[in-house]
Design goal:
The complex is a heterodimer of chains A (about 230) and B (about 220). With about 230 residues, chain A is α/β, with parallel strands linked by helices. Chain A has 6 helices and 11 strands. The model of chain A has no long low-confidence stretch (mean pLDDT about 95). Chain B has a 10-stranded mixed beta sheet with strand order 4-3-2-1-5-8-10-11-12-13, sandwiched between helices. In chain B, helix 5 links the parallel strand 12 and strand 13.
């Protein structure tokens, strides 16, 4: 079996240079590739275009990269939780493209399925449709949206094997599998790296063919954005 | 006049046994508290979950298990988890029976605006544009008038649109209204103690009302 294992996050992201386009998995702070973000902050790579549903919070997730002014452009569906983000946006330091969440997910999917474009009704008749081709199928209008073209996809999985097969846990799955399929180079950090043969082939979410590098992550903080609980009785 | 919970209670009566339902943030989230006994529904969270359960007990929060509002939640027997592309796939393919969401403005032809106010920090549309463009059955939960007393049910939306000609039913603190296929708001029910005249005064768009509009029944 082909071995995709690299030593750590620093090695995994070593060839990410200034100006690249990255996909980063996660929804809010759930299922984000914490180790790779830390390594990117340490490396100081700049002028990055980041495709990610959200942009982290001020002191965690992609917010850490924003604070170091490493991001030139964010492509996201919702970016509300970050004061530094807002400051850079209003001052013109940061470019932002907001796109519908389903469009974002499906443009990843299209890239991973080898399809150049999708047709979606999301955004028809709104400012999202400006400059885009509209096609009518069976009486309903759809926007043509292109598959993403990302240099690197960086995802976080629960378990992975040395061949790059991945299994995600609970709703930390979110954008991770579709982004894993969409990168020219896909980097996966996992909570538990196991030998080939230890994962049931029937349980694999992302086949290793899509994954180029995998490593055992460490020190996961897994910060909760909105802690909501109910009282016992 | 209804409070937020009253609006949620009234909307809950629209939910039928066997429905898959997507609830937006705000008043729509409250609807989950008023689903009638014996009505089995499955709540979808568009980050990738069907079968959303209640908040966890204190100390049992799982950072890997959140809803679309990023709140910690639980699963239920029969829940399923999937990626975000599949989640919007089932929305686009109209497998979700009912979508309930909030709005800043709705127009008399069923346009909705709920994501952007010019001059204010824009946070993004999240999944709202996908939901309104694809859902076959949308109920809007909203305030009839803004804080300045101006109607939010308009001849045409003034804010940037989220979707066009997609809203068919609205529940406000004053009324239940249908959006007619050829345009205009049809008054279906009045909130307890609210007159047709009050509703007419609060509705800037075209309003159609029969002589005898029933009052809502809310338990």
């Amino acid at each position: 079996m082909i071995n995709k294992v690299v030593a750590n996050a620093d090695e995994a992201i070593a060839d990410i240079t200034d100006g690249k386009t990255l996909m980063l998995g996660g929804f809010g702070l759930c299922g984000i590739p914490e180790n790779c973000i830390t390594a990117l902050v340490k490396k100081g790579t700049k002028e990055l275009t980041c495709i990610s549903n959200n942009a982290g919070v001020d002191d965690f997730g992609i917010g850490l990269m924003l604070k170091q002014r490493q991001v030139k452009k964010m492509i996201s569906s919702y970016v509300g939780e970050n004061a530094e983000f807002e400051r850079q946006l209003l001052s013109g330091e940061l470019e932002v493209e907001l796109i519908p969440q389903g469009t974002l997910a499906t443009r990843c999917l299209a890239a991973g399925y080898g399809m150049p474009a999708i047709f979606t009704p999301a955004g028809v008749g709104t400012e999202v449709a400006e400059g885009k081709e509209v096609r009518n199928f069976d009486g309903k209008d759809y926007l043509m949206e292109y598959a993403f073209d990302a240099d690197f996809a960086i995802v976080k999985a629960w378990k992975g094997d040395t061949a790059g097969n991945l299994i995600f846990r609970s709703t930390s799955r979110n954008f991770n599998p579709v982004m894993a399929m969409a990168g020219k180079i896909t980097i996966a950090e996992v909570e538990e790296l196991v030998e080939v043969g230890e994962l049931d082939p029937d349980h694999i979410h992302t086949p290793g063919v899509y994954v180029h590098r995998v490593f055992q992550g460490k020190d996961y903080e897994k910060r909760i954005e909105q802690r909501t609980v109910r009282k016992r009785n | 006049m209804l409070d937020k919970d009253g609006i949620a209670k009234r909307i809950a009566k629209e939910i039928k046994d066997g429905y898959y339902v997507n609830l937006g943030i705000g008043i729509p989230t409250l609807v989950a508290n008023y689903i009638p006994e014996g009505v089995n529904v499955v709540l979808q969270s568009e980050n990738g979950l069907l079968g959303m359960g209640p908040f966890p007990f204190e100390g049992e929060e799982d950072p890997d298990l959140i809803n679309a509002g990023k709140q910690t939640i639980t699963t239920l027997p029969g829940s399923s988890i999937f990626d975000s592309a599949m989640s919007f796939g089932m929305i686009r393919a109209q497998k979700i029976d009912l979508t309930i969401l909030g709005a800043m403005e709705v127009s008399e032809n069923g346009d909705i605006a709920n994501w952007k106010i010019p001059g204010k920090m824009v946070k993004g549309m999240g999944g709202a544009m996908d939901l309104v463009a694809s859902a076959k059955n949308i109920i809007v939960a909203m305030q009839h008038v803004n804080k300045a007393g101006e109607s939010k049910l308009l001849p045409a939306c003034t804010l940037p649109l989220t979707g066009v000609k997609c809203i068919k039913k609205i529940v406000t603190e004053l009324a239940v209204l249908d959006v007619l296929p050829d345009g205009g708001f049809k008054l279906v029910e009045r909130a307890p103690g609210v007159s047709v005249e009050e509703i007419r005064n609060a509705t800037a768009g075209k309003l159609y009302a029969d002589d005898d509009v029933p009052e809502m029944v809310i338990d």
